[in-house]
Amino acid sequence: MALTVYTTVPDEETAEKLAHGALEAGLAACVNFWPVRTMYRWEGELRDDNEHLLLLKCGREKWPQLEQFIKKTHPYSLPAIIALPWEAAHAPYRDWVCES
């Protein structure tokens, strides 16, 4: 089974660092990232920030190591790290992600 792991970071430089690190360590087969606007409540205040959203694709067996890598590399004290299982996927692509 494959997963898409979702996280956000404060800027493109951090997104590139996290993506390159995960790929070089063999923890992700592919990473997409792009700028997003995020509105949220934090420590009793409404926030409105620009961030970069990352989607890291990996096999389920890589999830524990990928989660630890993101936690160690991430600049936020409480990063969003969400693993979404693939219920359905194009089989050749899914197989490539799981094998990578």
Which CATH class is shown?
A: Alpha Beta
**What are the low-pLDDT stretches, counting only 5+ consecutive residues below 50?**
none
> What number of domains?
1
- Give the overall form: elongated
CATH architecture: 2-Layer Sandwich
Radius of gyration: 14 Å
CATH topology: Alpha-Beta Plaits
What topology, given as strand order, has the largest sheet?
Answer: 2-3-1-4
SSE pattern: EHEEHEH
**How many beta-strand runs?**
4
The biggest sheet, with number of strands, parallel, antiparallel or mixed sense and barrel status, is: 4 strands, antiparallel
Mean pLDDT: 96
Count the DSSP helices.
Answer: 3
What portion of residues is helical? 25-40%
Structural class: alpha+beta
Care to give the gist of this entry?
The chain has 100 residues and is an alpha+beta fold.
